[in-house]
Amino acid sequence: MRTSSVQPKHYVTSALRKLVEEARHVNSNRDKVRRSQEIAYKFMSAMAGDLPGFEEATRALFAGDHEQFHSLISSWPVDVRDYVRKLSASAFQREHAT
Which of 57, 51, 56, 60 is nearest to 78 (CA)? Predict the structure, then answer.
């Protein structure tokens, strides 16, 4: 009598596939945060590098300190500030990443 079972090779392949998919999901959140930080930083460097609080705002951006970041950029020109907020929105999603 023959029994039907999952072959070890298929089991390993399936397990590896699940691990890769899980790692992609976890890393995709980190990648999204990093991309948002980098894009916002590039714009900030070009448009706000001489504005008050630029260096501190940059540190807050990369530290994920949403409140400090928004406080520091609040005195910037409205159009620059609003665009930086838009670009950096995903940079502060760490607490939601799982």
Answer: 51
In terms of pLDDT, which residue wins out, 73 or 95?
Answer: 73
Q: What angle do CA 14, 19, 20 make, to 5 degrees?
A: 95
Distance from C-alpha of 75 to C-alpha of 83, rounded to nearest angstrom: 14
Q: How many CB atoms lie within 10 A of CB 7?
A: 8
Q: How far lies 30's CA from each of 8, 25, 50, 64, 78, in Å?
A: 33, 9, 29, 12, 29
pTM of this structure: 0.70
Angle at 72 (CA atoms; ends 56, 59), nearest 5 degrees? 25
Closest CA to 75 of 37, 40, 48, 39: 48
Summarize pLDDT for 31-66 with one digit per residue, the tens.
999 999 999 999 999 999 999 999 999 999 999 999
